[in-house]
Amino acid sequence: MKNATVIFGPAVDAAITHLIDYVDPSDIPTVITFLERIQTRLVKTLATFPEGGSRFQGNLRMMVVENYTFLYKYHAAANEVHVLEMIAPGQDWR
């Protein structure tokens, strides 16, 4: 089976922007390096094991990477993973 394509939705971009807005400007390169690391890890895992995360609600799944929770859906017919949300540690989201 070919690896799935992983697509990040606009809410993930918004969460990243929101996170960067709250750090000291001198720390932005460190934060970006960290975010790239967890994003790379998430993409590799979901591309290989698109149904590997825990079931959350219906077809929605979740995967935690370094305490950040990602909500996603796997669309088997298109072999695509759509990452819908990135939730930072400590956020009350349930």
Structure description:
The chain has 94 residues and is of the alpha+beta class. The protein has one domain (5-87): RelE-like (YaeB-like fold, 2-Layer Sandwich). 35% of the residues lie in helices and 32% in strands. The protein contains two helices and five strands. It has helices at 10-21, 28-48; strands at residues 5-8, 54-57, 60-65, 68-75, 80-87. A five-stranded mixed β-sheet has the order 1-5-4-3-2.
Indicate the topology:
Elements: E1 5-8, H1 10-21, H2 28-48, E2 54-57, E3 60-65, E4 68-75, E5 80-87
Parallel strand pairs: 1-5
Antiparallel strand pairs: 2-3, 3-4, 4-5
Helix and strand pattern: EHHEEEE
Predict the CATH topology.
Answer: YaeB-like fold
3D shape: globular
Number of strands: 5
Q: CATH superfamily assignment?
A: RelE-like
**What does the radius of gyration come to?**
14 Å
The chain-level mean pLDDT equals: 92
In total, the number of domains comes to: 1
Instruction: Quickly count the helices.
Output: 2
